[in-house]
Amino acid sequence: MVELKKLSLKDGNDIHEMLQTMPADENGFINPCKGKTFEEYKAWLAEQDNFSKGIYMPDWMVVQDIYWLYVDEKPAGMGKLRHSLTEALKKDGGHCGYGIAPAFRGKGHGKTLLKLLAQKAKLLGIGHMLVTIDNHNAASVGVALGCGGVVDKITDTKHYIWIDTSNANQWLKSQYPL
Asked: CA geometry: angle at 36 spanning 71 and 98, to 5°?
């Protein structure tokens, strides 16, 4: 069973432990909780909850929701979904970022997480979701293309891939029928 859960102030030790298994910075995905104590993690949850509501955000940020991918009731990954793009995010970051915990990699969960994020983006009125991926991260490029992404451009450092969010529900229903 696969489930996407939005960050909550009640998130506990299972999420904290998963975040400790993920690198702090890997292929451009930042895990700000790597190395944090449980108390620091709980403070980070409160900060992120505020940011998702547009409260106490630094000027350079946009509203962002954080989601946890659960597989068989265990946290398996983290996704960030930004509600809008700044000029800086158009160059580096895009609408979303995602990471899968090492124990869950190579099983298609990245594709599932990205499609679930696309579904959430669609609900926010984002018709096309931008994903920026480091060129050397072939696995993530493959995930984005496997989610119907279309390469807009490739620079010396990044792939810029747009995903049509209108397809997310159809893909998810075919993978996880009710």
From this structure: 40
